């Protein structure tokens, strides 16, 4: 069974996370510049078996897509076109940045490290991916 790659897409940076081979735990992987993302994915898929993607999808409090989807939707279309054999799942990403901050505090990360947005982005990606994994287990 291949892994699932989690993507927290932003206009400047993208947080990435990946599951273990059994798809039990999501772990923060890396943060890359948005302009480098598609090349990074291509290189990563050559080294690691990935069967699916989970992309954080921003919705507002009324469960309607937020303004940010204008930049995320074109990326999702390119991802589906380039990797038609890999499902692209969308996951609610509300509050993940705040939850990432809390997780880093609880994990004992020093204040200066918590200010590093690249760490927040990859932890957010892991939270999005873990929520997707947990939800998928409940629906089986």
Keywords for this entry:
single chain, 140 residues, Nucleotidyltransferase, domain 5, five-stranded mixed beta sheet, 5 strands, 44% helix
What is the secondary structure topology, with strand pairs?
Layout: E1 3-9, E2 13-19, E3 26-33, H1 37-47, E4 50-57, H2 69-82, E5 88-92, H3 96-106, H4 111-114, H5 117-138
Parallel strand pairs: 1-4, 4-5
Antiparallel strand pairs: 1-2, 2-3
Please state the CA-atom Rg, rounded to the nearest Å.
14 Å
Kindly state the number of beta strands: 5
Q: What is the tally of helical segments?
A: 5
Question: What sort of overall outline do the alpha carbons produce when their principal axes are compared?
Answer: globular
CATH homologous superfamily classification:
YqgF/RNase H-like domain
Q: What top-tier CATH class fits best?
A: Alpha Beta
Kindly, what is the distance between the CA atoms of the first and last residues, rounded to a whole number of angstroms? 17 Å
- Tell me about the largest β-sheet: 5 strands, mixed
What's the average pLDDT? Answer: 84
Weakly predicted, low-confidence segments? none
